Amino acid sequence: MPAWTLIAALAMQAPSSKDCGAAHRARKIAETRRVVLATAPLEPYVGEMPTPAGHRECVRLTFSIDSQGRAVDMHVSESSGDFVLVLDARRALSRYRFVPAVDGASKRYTLVFNVTENQWPSAPP
Predict the structure, then answer these.
(1) For residue range 40-61, what is the model confidence (pLDDT) as tens digits?
(2) What does the domain layout of the chain look like in residue ranges?
(3) Are 65 and 109 in contact (CB under 8 A)?
(4) For 28-40, what is each residue's pLDDT tens digit?
(5) What is the mean pLDDT of the chain?
(6) Contact 42, 113 (CB under 8 A)
(7) Burial per residue of 73-102, b for 16 or more beta-carbon CB atoms within 10 angstroms, e otherwise
(8) Which listed CATH number (3.30.2420.10, 1.10.530.10, 3.90.1150.10, 3.40.50.1820) goes with 17-42+55-117?
């Protein structure tokens, strides 16, 4: 997908809530979590000027699961607008593994990634 297409899509999908709809879609997200077999880490981004508290960012992705248990046809349904988080969430979701779809079922699933970005790293112990 060209970068300009992704940027245009993000501009149209401003979050309607601070959690990218996680509370409103709790049942759908719980249904999705039941078919997760393996997850992948999502590393919070720390920019050039971090703050003690950082700031909360979110992205809601909808997708289907193929016959090999991979997320396919990913769509950014809602985002707080952090371009780096969207890319990282899509990358992480592509590494997730799910219970494989049966007989080419095209059911849609939903996950919300919430992170605190641009926060000072923890002090060493």
Answers:
(1) 998 777 778 888 888 888 999 9
(2) 17-42+55-117
(3) yes
(4) 999 999 999 999 9
(5) 83
(6) yes
(7) eeebbbbbebeebbebbbebbeebbbeebe
(8) 3.30.2420.10
